[in-house]
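re: the backbone from monday

yeah here it is again, tokenized this time
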């Protein structure tokens, strides 16, 4: 493969970067999903401006868990971090390849909260009122991160900093920017765009754009 601009960006703790850009092999032959075009820019897509994280805001975990969590951003950074090279596919048709995201794996937070056996679904909540949902098994897999770093720097606020979710196996609307809460559910519920006609399954290699 040719050099990419994420070459040289390393995990702050382990000095390693995991390359997840091959996960498309699970879904098809082409790294670029059908109907997508590659962009060098990283466009910003938000339903309504960029909210800011106040000093008293906390990241909360609730629902079908043993321990409700309320974490500050500093506490979040105490969890083991990973840096991964991932591709990013927006349902409107652009893909940004080779993004280096640093953050905490979803599975790490789920384990910390103690998810109940009957939990099947997850709703992400964000500071701008955005929500998005995924089945639990689509969240606990490799690549789903609570990301606070991008390309070796703090995640820019218009891209969801200080904390966002990334979902490289799904269209990017499944990754809540400014994520402030995770709710574990025993039944499926639909998020903001999913209620408005976008696909709940959102697999880019099947072009699951609309429901
Ligand atoms: N909180 C929040 N998260 C969000 C959105 C939003 O409007 N609010 N837009 C989604 C959509 S449609 C996309 S394509 C990506 C865009 O991320 P970016 O702005 O970093 O490119 O964020 C997703 N997460
Ligand atoms: Mo999007």
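seq for it, each position gets an aa:
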């Amino acid at each position: 493969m040719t050099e990419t601009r994420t070459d040289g960006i390393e995990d702050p703790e382990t000095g390693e970067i995991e390359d997840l850009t091959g996960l498309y092999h699970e879904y098809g032959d082409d790294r670029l999903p059908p109907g997508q075009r590659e962009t060098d820019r990283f466009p910003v897509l938000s339903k309504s401006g960029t909210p800011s994280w106040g000093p008293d805001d906390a990241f909360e975990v609730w629902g079908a868990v043993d321990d409700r969590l309320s974490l500050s951003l500093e506490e979040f950074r105490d969890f083991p971090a990973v840096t991964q090279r991932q591709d990013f596919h927006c349902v409107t048709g652009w893909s940004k390849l080779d993004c280096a995201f640093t953050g905490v794996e979803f599975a790490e937070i789920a384990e910390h909260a103690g998810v109940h056996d009957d939990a099947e679904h997850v709703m992400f909540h964000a500071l701008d009122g955005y929500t998005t949902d995924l089945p639990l098994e689509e969240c606990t897999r490799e690549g789903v991160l609570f990301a606070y770093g991008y390309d070796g720097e703090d995640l820019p606020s218009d891209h969801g900093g200080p904390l966002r979710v990334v979902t490289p196996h799904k269209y990017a609307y499944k990754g809540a920017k400014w994520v402030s809460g995770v709710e574990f559910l025993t039944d499926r519920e639909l998020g903001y765009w999913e209620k408005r006609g976008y696909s709940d399954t959102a697999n880019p290699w099947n072009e699951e754009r609309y429901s």
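Residues 63 and 184 are 5 Å apart (CA to CA). Residues 2-43+56-206 form a domain with the Sulfite Oxidase; Chain A, domain 2 fold (CATH 3.90.420.10).
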